[in-house]
Amino acid sequence: MAQQRALRIGITIGIRSETEGMWVNGIKQNALYLAKLFQHSPLGHSVAIVNTTSVALTGVLPWDTARFPVRQFEDVKDALDVLIELGGQISEEQTRYLKARGTKLVSYCCGPEYVQMMEAMIFNRRLADTVFINQQYDAVWAIPQVMETTASFLGTLRRVPVCEVPFVWDPMCLNMRTRDLPFEGEYRPREIATPDVADRTKKRLTVMEPNIDVLKFCLYPLLIAEQAFRSDRDAIAHLHVTNAKHLARHSPEFIGIAQYLDIVKAGKASFVGRYETPQFLSEHTDIVISHQWGLALNYFYFDACWNGFALVHNAQLCREIGYYYEGNDVEAGARQLVHAIRRHDDDWQSYRAKQRKAIVRFLATNLELIARYDELLEGLFATDQRE
């Protein structure tokens, strides 16, 4: 293997607006967490976030740009040992330039690209006017939750074996967003948080799936809430389903199913628009219900659990957090939800501590993760050492 050394690393993002927020999607958070991990390497890597769009960098981005500097591609193209293409794609011409000067190029897959492309083809969802398949990567890295659906798709088209790499998270973005919220966004039982509310023992349920594809959709969580409501109507104050206003207004199939649910007929369910996770949890939530199908790790789970919110979920790659149920078992999910409704507040502080301990293995500051990524970086230069 090549000798380990400090590297100059770029991580791409695609900024679409000069004032773009971090909660539009998880891509920018992903870039920041990975940058933080590299910064904590004992090898002393230098890291820059590399913007691949023409949007001007005005210095008003919602993170510490002194700690996580953002540069345009043209400004850093001659000063990189490694470019990790994560949230913004470079062109064929830019690829040739980097390869000619010996920069290692890594494709970092953190999304279900096969599913997204398949849905684009079947449902005429335009992803791009033209498709550029870069076949000049030195490595393709993919996080665990997308390996099953997407690894073979990527490996075949990009002509490079796909390597599974650790999922990385950090509470930095969460803390940044919650610092001005009550209790800094952490969960509190309602008798502590709102002592003047008469029905404070009733629980407010929230479903926050994106509802943009089949992988994370709100229907199973809605059915779980329905089953729990049938077993104990007086225990539930309200159910909010975010990212679902368009479904409740314009989808005959969704409306047709929802109208048969007791929780809907009782006026205890609302289908609302898009909200930022930390604020909605802080203001409207006691318990979160989630369901995934092929995305068994997600920042949302950690955002909720780190701050002590009860999470009823079926994500098997982090089954040690929250209240786990298997697969598509709505009845099991409802049992976990009822358990959380009745017992979560009995030991809510210990629950939060347990969640944070379980999440440690995913943190950007975890020494084992840092060492693994240093090994991956080292491997990029192993061929050069042998030649």
From TrEMBL:
Entry-linked InterPro entries: DUF2827
Native source organism of the sequence: Paraburkholderia edwinii
Pfam families: DUF2827
Lineage: Bacteria, Pseudomonadati, Pseudomonadota, Betaproteobacteria, Burkholderiales
Top-level taxon in the UniProt lineage: Bacteria
Protein name: DUF2827 domain-containing protein
